[in-house]
Amino acid sequence: MMELKKNLLEGSKRIGIWGVGHIGYSTMSHFAESGVHCVGYDIEPRKVAEINRGEIPIFAMDYWLGFDPEFLYRHGVARATTDYQELMAPDVAVHFICIPTERNGEPFLEPLEDVCHKLIDAVKNKSFSEPPLIIIESTLTPGTTDHFVIPRFQAAGLAVGKDVLIGCAPRRDWFSSTDNKSLRTIPRIFGGADPATSAAIQQVLSIVCASLVPAPDHMHAEVVKSIENAYRHAEVALAFELSRAYPSLDMRTVLELVGTKWNVGTYFPSFGVGGYCIPLSSHYVIQGAEHPEELTLLRQTVKVCEQQPLLVGQALLKSGAKKVGILGLSYTQNVKVWAQSPTLRISEFLLKAGVEVKVNDPHYTQEEVTRIVGLETFEFPEGLDQFDAVLVVAGHREYRLADHTHLFQHLPNCKIILDSPGMWKDVDFTGTDVEYHVAGDAWWLNGRAPAAIGEPAANQIMATR
């Protein structure tokens, strides 16, 4: 394995990627851009065909990558396949596991088990010219490698560290930004089941990653991703609770001020926590703990964050909303990821209460919206005139760049706007009937503040400017 990096760069060895979603496709593209030949396996024929035509199957991935990967796929430096046997070729020396490990907001390991069994069969059938190096990039419940992955190889009579090399290097780059948060620049944690495996992983990752941080072993590397996200989850939950506890304060501004201290992160109230990582992190840490009863703060974190979308729905009901337009099916700006999006729970709550709800997201078709959330779509901004309430869930650039005059023309019936990312906080709603709130400002979940003595409520300026 000491010549692994050299062999990969010279082309005598290749990398196999199991799963070409956000993680797998970006891994494959970065290594291909560095001159390493790669083959990626996925169960979706449409996605595989798009990749091999040089098309980018994931919205804005070229922006996140920092380069256009079309050339790499058109010229065969990297390619995708629906035939996993192509990853069993003798020269495929490294296997990145990038498959989903969650379903419906809960840890889900069936795809991981399937990949393990395929690799076990290949090793036993001597498909590879040398013991394969398996690097798990997927986020795992702490202990999964030791209690789920390794035992399957051992039960098949394979010795870890001899017949197969296994390690963990969870991804922590940020798909909404390329500012020092890309796969190439962000510090990368890694660890193998034995020192030789750790050394091999370091060789491979150093082809792409400029900053490598070795963990003592695979167990420590595995747990880092969940715990660092659990920290963030807890801080987000505290921001939610502070906003609820001090409804008369603009908690968003308070937290901006708090965040100016050198050792304090800046977290804002929002409609909820979405995505693949943070909502699941506390679940992973709790499930993998040796003494889960000690993790009372994380249990409360989960509870607080799961309540948040319902409180937003309740705020709309208190405002008297009957027709609600939601801007954004994605959980955050400029991505096409709807996993755990606040839109799912808010719309479900409102529909049960008899409220008419429609969704706009420029990155999804009507068919996709219907399949995912079961709602009709509307045009932006033209379709806003049918709603008495508007929720801004995802701060897509299409919403941020909307002409303000044009926007006002399509809000004749709107009484309240709740804006989670603060897209329109600089829009002057003075003189309109719109009650505008950025998530976290004063009374954003409670409607207008009680009128001061002798002062009509309508004259109070409650919106954040």
Describe the SSE topology.
Blueprint: H1 4-10, E1 14-18, H2 22-33, E2 38-41, H3 45-52, H4 61-65, H5 70-74, E3 78-81, E4 92-97, E5 102-103, E6 106-107, H6 110-124, E7 133-136, H7 144-155, E8 165-168, E9 188-192, H8 195-205, E10 212-214, H9 218-245, H10 251-258, H11 278-288, H12 296-318, E11 323-327, H13 342-352, E12 356-360, H14 366-373, E13 376-377, E14 389-392, H15 397-400, H16 404-409, E15 416-419, E16 435-438
Parallel strand pairs: 1-2, 1-4, 2-3, 4-7, 7-8, 9-10, 11-12, 11-14, 12-13, 14-15, 15-16
Antiparallel strand pairs: 5-6, 8-9
Helix pairs in contact: 6-7, 9-11, 9-12, 11-12, 12-13
Helix content: 25-40%
Q: Looking at this structure, what is the CATH superfamily of the largest domain? A: NAD(P)-binding Rossmann-like Domain
Mean pLDDT: 91
Shape: globular
Measured distance between first and last alpha carbons: 60 Å
Largest sheet: 8 strands, mixed
Strand adjacency order, main sheet: 3-2-1-4-7-8-9-10
CATH topology of the largest domain: Rossmann fold
Low-confidence stretches: 451-465
Question: What radius of gyration results from the CA coordinates?
Answer: 24 Å
The CATH architecture assignment of the largest domain turns out to be 3-Layer(aba) Sandwich
Strand tally? 16
Fraction of residues in β-strands: 5-15%
- CATH class type of the largest domain: Alpha Beta
Alpha-beta classification: alpha/beta
- Please tally the helical runs, counting DSSP H or I stretches of 4 or more residues: 16
